[in-house]
Amino acid sequence: MSTNSLGYNEQGGEAAAELGQEAAASPAAPASVPAAFGLFSSDTKKNEDLKQMLESNKDSAKLDAMKRIVGMIAKGKNASELFPAVVKNVASKNIEIKKLVYVYLMRYAEEQQDLALLSISTFQRALKDPNQLIRASALRVLSSIRVPIIVPIMMLAIKEASADLSPYVRKNAAHAIQKLYSLDPEQKELLIEVIEKLLKDKSTLVAGSVVMAFEEVCPDRIDLIHKNYRKLCNLLVDVEEWGQIVIIHMLTRYARTQFVSPWKEDGVLEEYNEKDFYESDEEQKEKDQKVKKPYAMDPDHRLLIRNTKPLLQSRNAAVVMAVAQLYWHLAPKSEAGIVSKSLVRLLRSSREVQYIVLQNIATMSIQRKGMFEPYLKSFYVRSTDPTMIKTSKLEILTNLANEANISTLLREFQTYVKSQDKQFAAATIQAIGRCATNISEVTDTCLNGLVCLLSNRDEIVVAESVVVIKKLLQTQPAHHGEIIKHMAKLLDTITVPVARASILWLIGEYCERVPKIAPDVLRKMAKNFTNEDELVKLQIVNLGAKLYLTNSKQTKLLTQYILNLGKYDQSYDIRDRTRFIRQLIVPNEKSGALSKYAKKIFLAQKPAPLLESPFKVDRDRFQLGTLSHTLNTKATGYLELSNWPEVAPDPSVRNVEVIELGKEWSVNVGKAKKEKPTEKFYSDSEEEESASTTDSESESTSESGKDKNGKEEGSSMENSESSSSEELSDSASESKEGTAKKKFKTSEESDSDDTEKKTEKRRSSSSSDSESSSTEESSTDSGSESDSKSEAESRNPKNAIAKRKEMAVQEKKVPTKQDVSLLDLDDFGSVSSTVAIPTPAILSPSLVADLEGLSLSTSSVINVSSPIFLPMKTHELLHRMSGKGLAAHYHFSRQPCIYGDQMVSVQVTIMNTTDQKLENIHIEERKLPAGMKMHMFNPIEFLEPGESITVSMGIDFCDSTQTASFQLCTKEDHFNVNIQPSVGELLLPVTMSEKDFMTEQGKLTGMNETSATITVAPKNSTRLMILEKVIKAANLGVVPSGQDNMHRFAAKTVHSGSLMLVTVELKEGSTAQLIINTEKMVIGSILLRELKPVLSQG
Questions:
Q1: Which residue of 445, 830, 891, 1074 could cross-link 778, Cys pair, CB 3.0 to 4.6 Å?
Q2: Where is the composition biased (Low complexity) (predicted)?
Q3: DSSP letters spanning 492-514
């Protein structure tokens, strides 16, 4: 059934795209209509044609018409006028037509409500249809008709659908709840009842949709989640991706109301600590002397954190972001660091995803710098980044700046300032200013750098520098009188109003430090007062007032002149400011008491401004990953995170009573399962476990391993009926969950009937699931192998026993290795537990025969071998005349390179032919084509006259004969040298049997085969000569041949490991056929060209 539902989903969701292509292929309009009038011609004739097809008696015509109509919708064309003709076919008996009619109605039912109401009885009948797809589609169309009069009908339909046997229909019922609530909010109480019922649903297909309905209708009803909390945590990995996002956000809010803060413990620790959260009792006592009760994490809290951890590897960026915000808001600070690697991985996504992720990282990096310091280089700006991403990365780099990395960052910022993107260059200057205030060691360096920027040709850069310098000078003005003088000179050239105003403010604020320059600046400003910007005029007036109070002899007349100009200015602000200042500083009869304090008012000590991150102000009040956080304003529908409670509410509300139906079912199967106490429900997450609990867990794991065998072998395993039935339910749930954790299968891809069975088994064996989850994480090898091979073995029952036996033997001999993934999935380190693997004592004859069939001879064994012929043919790297006495030769050792599997080993012999000692011989300036790599030899400190030394290098030529160029250098000189390999040196010889050779050759035919007929010299026709000639030309391995006239050679390319098969077949007379089979056709043809003269020459 799930297959059908998936197919329908694709058709429902992508029908427009698929059918649009089909419609595009069909004739869109009569040929007689000129193309030039296509934009203005009406579609009347075409639509008439479609209407006739829809009224036809033939289903094929109706189906074709519906495909074309849905194609029109996919192209964005309006097909609403066809609504009456389409709606007539809603009762069609053809299932394909009915599906497409529902796709159309879902699009236009809201626009054509009156016509859709005429078919309400048809939709009601369709709700009883035996086909689940029709029932679900009818409910979707019914909920799309937004007319208040049918609210009771919709309510009844939702209630019935919520009890439907099909999880797909129940999922659509959850979607309809939100539509009905938006249409009639008064139905809230009735809808909450349906939500409560659907929250208990066992299907992963329904979980995401019903939680979305919960968030829309009654997000404050936390009590509905209590009983379903553990189930949602355990089902999380199986839910579809968009459902996972909704559930994670809901559980984040839930956890903030139900658990105490895990950060109390971290208050004693450092801001970011890699150590385990739980430590020994002695260390706990030392660190928590002030705390009366040590913090112990609630098992349900730990369950949520542990079950969301694997989702950090999800392919969906939104899921990773959701888990990251959950860890940020819920996890102990010492554990939140694991999300940083996953978030940095998302920076390889599209620019939109990058922007959202960077916004969240910027907020995180303010509070916890240590999380992202190891990934500093990931935030370097690329020239191709858009401005929004550049500024976000710049923000993060500034947040991560500290004494250790500031020198590197300042060099990086120096490059950014030269950017053509002026907005970004200005942001960089602000970032330099923030670094200067945050890190006192580099304040002077930053200030000097900003002063140098004042001579920049770009006005925007100069203006921004002035503004930042102004703020920096306020922190320590006494030491920077020279900088103020330098900035005063810039007034003649700078035209940006903000920069001019900043300079004037600085001169006015520190006019006593520049007593000679300040009056002259005021004189110049007064001369051009009327042409200045309003912002600059205000600062000129302020400067005049300050100079009037401190140096009235020189500036009294100038100030009065400026005040007179301001009195008649066009701007209200200038006129008001002028009147206010005149009354304040110029004493007269009307002056009040304020004029006595004018000097204190204007020249008061002002606090230095704080250069803070814009993210620090108020953005962190929003939950990470939300629209409100990105916009920095509260969006509609935003649900705030509550503060941690001082005392945790009663955890027993999350305990689920044992369902009686489960007991009856297990009794009917064979044996009633033993109930396990609720306090050990999550025993694997508790810190202090008894040895007996661990043993019981390992036993349950081994039982599940036995069961996988017993389940497929049937009666061959001698287990009692009751025990096998118990193990069947346990292992089914364990294997399903294990597979889901590794492959991230969405629930829509699995068969829905199987899903129902799987969730039913999960409910019946929930206690065993929770206990075995830790052993699943710590010993994933055997579990993953058995999961991935179970389906193949069920298809081949004959080989199942033999494969299982072989696996058992291997597992006995080889100790279990722990899987290494992108993230370590173990929360508290690995738990070592011995897993007993049952092996039958006696092998049946059929089993022995099957085991014999699994011998190594059936699989091809191709291993790299040592070369047969070690050539000493050397090539000149540097002649002694060109190298001023330094000479170098090289040859290919034809051995596997010690520096890398993809590199060719090169031996370089360096000689000193001079009469003086050569020092510091090394390699510089490697000029390699794209993709090529080189491992240099270590620098040679000195080489005495007449001496020589041989060093080893590794070069990855990427299976090409391109030249590797570099410089061989001494202390005084640099010499350009090149190494170019022949094709034969790009190979490593391999050994294989003749049968394997023939098999591989059969796979590499057609375009992968090149051949040529050559005339062989008489003395080259013997077997030894052919071997010598071929192996001397190319690093090939000899393959044994049963025929005298056939000579076979095999090798693999060093870089890619592609096979290279060479065959020399001697014919009658003196001719031979040379055949080369390889995937690398270019290398094959070059090798053929090189081997031909080798064999034909005498």
A1: 830
A2: 11-23, 716-732, 765-785
A3: GT---HHHHHHHHHHHHHTTTTS
